Amino acid sequence: MTVLPSVVSPLDGAQLVQMVVKxxxxxxxxxxxxxxxxxxxxxxxxxxxxxxxxxxxxxxxxNSSMFADLSDxxxxxxxxxxxxxxxxxxxxxxxxxxxxxxxxxxxxxVRSKAVKNKFKGRGGANKDxxxxxxxxxxxxxxxxxxxxxxxxVEVIEKLPQLKDCSSVMYEExxxxxxxxxxxxxxxxxxxxxMESSAxxxxxxxxxxxxxxxxxxxxALYSNIKLFEKSVKLIADDEDLQTNLAKYxxxxxxxxxxxxxxTSLAADHMVTIPDGxxxxxxxxxxxISNLPDSIKDVTGKVHTSLNGKSLxxxxxxxxxxxxPKHIGILLKKSDKKRDRQIQFNHRMTxxxxxxxxxxxxxxxxxxxxxxxxxVLFGVVTQSMLHCSGRMIPQIVKYMQPHLSADNYxxxxxxxxxxxxxxxxxxPAGDERLLxxxxxxxxxxxxxxxxxxxxxx
Length: 455
Description:
By secondary structure, the protein is mainly α. The chain has helices spanning 10-21, 38-45, 48-62, 64-67, 73-76, 80-95, 129-133, 149-156, 167-197, 204-233, 238-267, 280-288, 292-305, 310-321, 335-359, 364-380, 391-398, 404-422, 430-445; strands spanning 27-30, 34-37, 98-101, 108-111. The strands form 2 sheets. Strands 1-2 form a two-stranded antiparallel sheet. The chain has a two-stranded antiparallel sheet with strand order 3-4. The termini are far apart. Mean pLDDT is 78; it is low at 71-83, 98-107, 109-141 and 199-204.
């Protein structure tokens, strides 16, 4: 205030400034004596844009649970919108409430009218009595916060256009920026949430994804239960039974769980790195980032996949899919549908064999593997899911259920393939090709009535 006469106080100077800017709507007064515009304030907010995007992405990774309910308006805006509407409704009810005057049960009802306080809003004085009864709404723990006031000041202090300004001016600019920055950050976070979880405002994509997940889970679960029947069928060979169970857990059961875990991670804004499902550690890390309410249940399914009990997996999976957690309804077992699945499984394998037979391509061991799976389905009327290493054990298991000629044919072909794998005979050996072709024809033509010849 050194440019004013000594008789003019700082308060007088501030009043003069207010009189000057009264006719200028875009003018903003800082520190009582500095006049600027909203455009200048907006320029001070420019450096925060890059920080917003970076912080939103980081928060989604580090605080995934905070973003889980981001589509809920109360979570996004700190519950202010709905609470404000609720307070208005309460005030209306209170204004329309009736009170009785007089004594006894015959007291007449008098409707009291709410009186609007004409001084409301002037410096916060003389607030309406309803407002006094309703405390201000504090931000919830899930409110998305961009930067605190001191953090905003730290960024502003580094701006070249504000060099050598007073700390009070920094604080006033920060105070004006705090709310707009928070609102903009929340919009950016909401946009990233929608993009990452592929949710439209109407939730159409989310419902579609849920339906697709439910369909995939049911298809895989039905196949797993049918393959499980063949595992239980081989009760005489405990070693083979255990290996089949482990293989089923590591393949189809893991595929089902991975699909479910992917959906859970998207719902709770947990990022899945490339190749995370390739290792047990990668999958365990994803689970560790889930909220506590779902982490334990999901961890039990993950643990069961590393064991050898299909029953343990089934129990843990059903708990995870229950309405309490994911809410996927599994279809009940249906004999007609199961027979159709088995038929389709067999026909798919036969079509693959015919295609390989037509063009002469295909690895001999793979073709033989497919033939054995088809033959196993014929003689046991069940579906088989196994690795190539288990084929010799499967062939041995089928011996009592095949005629001597058919078993010798299969065993001879298997012996030739083993020799070829060891390098004792070439891949195009005539005996191998001829033997493999006969096994193919047996897979195409063997009927259930022709099996169990020696049973």
